[in-house]
Design a protein that fits this description.
With about 425 residues, this protein is mostly helical. It has 18 helices and no strands. It has two domains: about 140 residues, no CATH class; about 190 residues, no CATH class.
């Protein structure tokens, strides 16, 4: 890396400073045109010093490895600035879409070095960095449109739904080279989108309750005249939505909510001596949510029991502690959802959804994060892995996943957000 630093660090910094200076004085349309000339056309850029710096970077033996990070940083210098001005945010998707022109551009300079720039740019469009930029473009575009318009064609790719799930943003809109500033911006967007979803859902639920009350008192004609239409902000039907909300905030086992069950379980763990005893208690706590006895007794309960027994068995005799709690819950989420992008095995998750439905499957996951909030981000990462795995599949081809994503949105909003629909209990 020292050799790399010596060879092109100066040129790289020259490039960054160039965009940092220009973004403060030029309009987005001018900057996008500059990007097109420098990176897409690959020649004819007005500032020869910058063009030569880019050529040196492209000629470096480290270019194949490092160019995607450099270009990503250049993009984010503009994006970070524009994101702070609502009037300029619409330019962000335009900048990102610019790279779709890359394979179509002809007439590059004949020099060997210049030829490598468009090649490297094309490679950038196939990178994780560009994929995260495309997802960000979808989120920004959605923010500038009517947020109440939640219904889009089922034939579109699953990836078009990324704006709907703020809990995926940290894992889907950032890449391994994202700066602290980029992380702050995504966190801000995530907070805004989450707040808007909670407001929209709260208004819709209140509207539906009011609508039902009015319908009982008035004729259908006067009802239609007096009640303003508010759109369902989810992709669930009304019966699915209200069933899910009542599950996540209402009584699910006897007189207890999920939160109360988690509180009782945690109170009991304070007297648990060994890790082995904790795993036995955890098993009982979880299987009580599998209400389909035939499915549970036929296969799932045994699989879950074996999974727990085989989880860190060398610690069984040790005293139970928070570290073992976090490790165990993480392993359970691997088992119940998916382990990693490299091993995207998720048969258990599909099997659960097929047998007990997306809402009760989500309830099972909610039980885990309610007793160990430190694995909430880990659960979100599991869903982000599945989202990435099926990103280019049509929505109608992965209905089970869409319903799971929608249910988790509701579960997290009602139990970890500011959404209050306790009146539905």
């Amino acid at each position: 890396m020292n050799d790399y630093n010596r060879q092109i660090q100066e040129e790289e910094q020259l490039l960054y400073n160039h965009w940092l200076e220009l973004v403060q004085v030029e309009q987005p349309i001018e900057l996008i045109d500059r990007f097109r000339t420098l990176f897409i056309h690959g020649n004819g850029y007005g500032d020869r010093t910058i063009a030569e710096a880019l050529e040196k970077i492209a000629a470096s033996p480290y270019a194949q490895q490092e160019f995607k990070y450099i270009l990503n940083r250049c993009c984010h210098i503009l994006i970070n600035r524009w994101q702070t001005y609502p009037s300029k945010q619409a330019a962000i998707p335009e900048l990102i879409a610019l790279f779709e022109e890359a394979p179509k551009i002809l007439g590059y300079s004949r020099s060997r070095v210049a030829h490598s720039i468009p090649k490297l740019v094309n490679q950038f469009t196939e990178s994780e960095q560009y994929l995260t930029l495309q997802r960000l473009a979808k989120v920004i575009t959605h923010s500038n449109e009517d947020s109440s318009n939640s219904k889009t064609p089922a034939t579109l790719a699953l990836g078009t739904l990324i704006p709907r799930y703020p809990y995926l943003y940290k894992h889907c809109l950032l890449s391994d080279d994202s700066t602290y500033e980029q992380q702050k911006i995504i966190k801000k967007i995530q907070t805004q989108k989450q707040q808007q979803f909670e407001i929209d859902l709260s208004q819709y639920v209140a509207h539906q309750v009011r609508k039902a009350q009015t319908a009982r008192r008035e004729t259908s004609m006067s009802f239609v005249r007096n009640i303003q239409t508010i759109k369902n902000p989810t992709l669930l039907s009304d019966p699915e939505l209200f069933f899910a909300l009542k599950q996540f905030v209402g009584k699910v086992e006897g007189a207890d909510t999920y939160r109360q069950l988690a509180g009782r379980f945690m109170a009991n763990t304070s007297t648990t001596v060994s890790y082995s005893s904790f795993k036995d208690d955890l098993y009982e706590y979880l299987i009580s949510s599998v209400t389909d006895d035939r499915y549970g007794k036929r296969q799932f309960n045994e699989k879950l029991y074996k999974k727990l027994q085989n989880t860190f068995p060398h610690n069984d005799a040790q005293n139970f502690n928070e570290f073992l709690m976090i490790r165990t819950c993480s392993q359970l989420l691997n088992f119940l959802v998916v382990e990693s992008p490299a091993r995207p095995n998720h048969f258990v998750f599909i099997d659960l959804i097929s047998n007990i439905g997306p809402t009760q499957t989500t309830g099972l996951l909610l039980k885990i994060v309610l007793i160990c909030s430190k694995v909430k981000a880990y659960l979100e990462k599991r869903l982000a892995i599945l989202f990435g795995h099926y990103e280019f599949s049509t929505r109608e081809g992965v209905v089970w996943l869409v319903k799971a994503l929608e249910n988790l949105n509701l579960a997290l909003s009602t139990n970890f957000g500011n959404l209050d629909v306790s009146f539905l209990r």
